[in-house]
TrEMBL record:
This is SulP family inorganic anion transporter. Residues 27-125 form the SLC26A/SulP transporter domain. The chain crosses the membrane at residues 58-88, 108-129. Keywords: Membrane, Transmembrane, Transmembrane helix.
Amino acid sequence: MTTASARIRQGLRAYLRRFGGRKTIGADLKAGLVLGVESVPDGLAAGLLAGVSPLNGLYAYMFGALGGALATGSVFMTVQATGAMAVVISDVSAATPGGLTPGALTTLGLMTGLVMLGLASLGLVLWCASSRRLCWSASSTPSP
């Protein structure tokens, strides 16, 4: 029988294996540098498009990228600000008397993140139900 801490360590090792290793660190650093240089003007532009301070757009880009890095491990995906979300924030800012305060903007961002996590959780539940597997059990054996 395995203990809970052994299962957690095993799961953590499996999670970290998705990110490559010492062989890919050079290529990962180069890709990160290129994406970092590209993301500064993109984040500033998203802030301007949203009608808020460009610095707020840069912060949103930074924290969005950090959240995406922690939540995903695909080499085929990058997390970037979208013009569609900036337009939505612009509409919210225009409808709010006095514009969005930094606190309201933070609340809007956190609420959006919670909705996205809820939708992702719903997708996982539907996937588990459609494939008739026990996604949450320790053995992960398919049900008959």
